[in-house]
Design a protein that fits this description.
Elements lengths: L1 H12 L3 E2 L2 E2 L6 H10 L2 E7 L6 H16 L4 E2 L2 E9 L7 H11 L4 E3 L4 H14 L2 E4 L16 E3 L5 H13 L4 E7 L2 H16 L4 E7 L7 H10 L3 E5 L2 H13 L8 E4 L7 H4 L7 E4 L8 H14 L5 H19 L7 H10 L1 E2 L6 E3 L5 E11 L2 E12 L9
Parallel strand pairs: 3-5, 3-6, 6-7, 7-8, 9-10, 9-11, 11-12, 12-13
Antiparallel strand pairs: 1-2, 4-5, 13-16, 14-15, 15-16, 16-17
Helix pairs in contact: 1-2, 3-12, 4-5, 6-7, 12-13
The protein binds P-hydroxybenzoic acid.
């Protein structure tokens, strides 16, 4: 019943005209169904294409489109039509930008975004409108925690997830007092909280937090403060253009030799062409690494390189997996996206054959995945070890 109603709604909305006028839904349902099936699936890409996270948005888009291209540009037998919005990683513009896709373009599925603050706005609107949404990066814990929802899926990570294992890595090395430094917004706060939880649990003593507003990159005063406090180590959350600048500034301040620097792997993913010497030897934890040396990853990397002429990073993988997840859902309903319940059931059961290693969905719709310890060697985040096998986000507050 729900399926038919949604279908009628779609058909009316797009005002298919016959010589007799607007199709009256009901009388011509089988034909309407056939029409709906040959229409393109409307995919809204809401990502940052300008600013400090611009490269991340591009990599996600590339990865997503590669997964679709590898399926002959059809998912569940239907072609896709893209509607693209640059969200500028600006939370203030999130409601308006999301509504452009949901209300104006009437997308069938939203794919986005990178920034947790923008994601918060998207989550609210996706919930209000019951729009299917796939999150290809933003770690906002609540998206698969307190605000979890049947129509919201994530193919990336929760902010807690890649940072938590780094706590034990440092505690096991005898590190006891750490300074954390991060952009002061959801992702930075939640990454530091995840790290702190793992660190204290494994025997660490204290984490003192220093903060800088997003997307500022004036690190000098903070580096001076770190030098004077002399902690055992520094843990940071930065990403994209800001991460590249931080790595260079930390090295230039002479701190690499005296105070070891660690972070979640966003610090060093996608930035190594820009940082060169300054990044060598940095150790981070993340759900992807260079040198996994599996056939799956090698095939992905050569296909990506062939399509775009540069190497993929974690963001490209997350975008690619968003494409694989949507393919799983659409294949299960043979492209009939109005069969929402069946589609969601298939996505929940999906085993995603990802370049990062196969992963499954948690009950809250977040990947259960291995977190790798990596080390920068040349322009690669070389695999060192598995820091935490099959890690699931605690999904605090989720009642799915
Ligand atoms: C986030 O805002 O959730 C975020 C942004 C960039 C990253 C990771 C997380 O690399």
């Amino acid at each position: 019943m729900g399926d038919w109603m949604e279908l009628n709604h779609n058909v009316n909305r797009r005002k298919f005209l016959t010589s007799a006028g607007v199709l009256t839904a009901g009388a011509l349902l089988p034909k309407a169904l056939a029409l709906a099936q040959t229409q393109k699936v409307r995919v809204g890409l809401m990502l940052p294409y300008t600013g400090t996270y611009a490269q991340l948005g591009v990599a996600i888009t590339n990865g997503f489109k590669l997964a679709v291209a590898e399926r002959g540009n059809k998912l569940g037998g239907r072609e896709l039509e893209y509607f693209t919005v640059d969200d500028e990683a600006d939370p203030a513009k999130a409601p308006e930008n999301t509504n452009k896709l949901v209300q104006r373009d009437k997308v069938d599925v939203l794919v986005g975004t990178v920034h947790s603050g923008v994601q918060m706005g998207m989550v609210k609107i996706a919930k209000e409108n019951n729009t299917l949404m796939i999150i290809p990066n933003a770690g906002l814990d609540a998206a698969t925690g307190a605000l979890c929802s049947p129509n919201i899926f994530r193919t990336s990570f929760s902010n807690w997830q890649p940072s938590y294992p780094m706590g034990k890595v440092l505690a096991d090395r005898g590190i006891r007092n750490v300074i954390s430094l991060a952009w002061k917004y959801g992702a930075g706060e939640e990454a530091v909280a995840g790290f702190t939880e793992g660190f204290i649990k494994a025997g660490g003593k204290s984490v003192r937090g220093l903060w800088i507003p997003f997307p500022n990159v004036e690190f000098q005063a903070l580096l001076t403060e770190i030098a004077s406090i002399k902690p055992d180590a520094v843990f940071v959350f930065f990403a994209g253009g800001g991460a590249a600048k931080f790595i260079k500034d930390y090295a230039a301040a002479g701190l690499r030799k005296t105070i070891p620097l660690f972070g979640s792997g966003f610090l060093t993913d996608g930035v190594l062409d820009a940082t060169e010497e300054a990044a060598q030897g940095l150790e981070t934890t993340l759900h992807y690494a260079d040198g996994l040396n599996t056939k799956r990853d090698r095939d992905f990397r050569s296909a990506y390189y062939k399509a775009y002429t540069f190497a993929p990073d974690v963001y490209a993988v997350q975008g690619y997996d968003a494409g694989l997840l949507l393919a799983t859902g659409l294949d299960a309903v043979k492209g009939d996206i109005s069969k929402r319940k069946e589609m969601i059931a298939a996505m929940e059961k999906a085993k995603i054959d990802s370049p990062r290693g196969a992963w499954t969905m948690s009950k809250a719709h977040n990947p259960i995945q291995d977190i790798y310890l990596r080390k920068v060697v040349g322009r690669e985040n070389k695999l060192v070890s598995v820091a935490h096998k099959a890690l699931a986000d605690p999904a605090r507050g989720c009642k799915l």
